[in-house]
Specification:
single chain, about 230 residues, alpha/beta, seven-stranded parallel sheet, two-stranded parallel sheet, 9 strands, about 40% helix
Amino acid sequence: MDGKICVIIGFGPGLGAAYAETFKQAGYSLALLSRSGATFGDEGSTDTSVRPYRCDAGNPDNLKKALSAVQSDLGEIEVVIYNADLAQFGALEDVSELQFEQSWRVGALGLFTTAKLLGSQMAERGSGVIIVSGATAALRGNVWTTVFAPSKSAQRTLANALAKQLGPRGVHVAYLVIDGVIDTEDTRTNFAPDEPDDFFIKPERIAETALMLARQDKSAWTFELDIRPFGEKW
């Protein structure tokens, strides 16, 4: 297929859809990986530049199979956006060992599997971009992030290790610290129903930042970048 290929792992409404719209408008063909196999665009669209793939990012074999299918269908992958995590929250007494493991598998093991398969290929040709959707929880834990924070912390330090290994070989690895509540129907209904518009991060603005990172010249690469609403306390 002509044009650059962008893979979004952890596609869905909100931020995943914003990534898809932004990179599609920038001329990328899209592979959308999600547990549901959700697609993007109009129902019944015949646009072959956007293809959904059913995939569990926490299952290495399943993830490798999906990524291999993308390469077979679309060709060489230029940009990977790792947007998968398992948003399970609660204090120690509220969560289980299984939830801890599931969160780590999706957040950290899935990124490792992705880099293991695609990172070496990108390094061999001397180009490629891996962008990870992170969170404030990667920097510190809280009462209700008992299983989420360790997963995001592992994800961030793994991204750091990947950047140091793959960067000198031409692969740009970047980590977005998303410090705030992303504006989606779910967060407005269930997480912050009484907050004004200015409280939220607009997913489209996060996606624009990711596109900027994907376009950065290698003489001035960014590894870690914080994104937060202007009124967010930090």
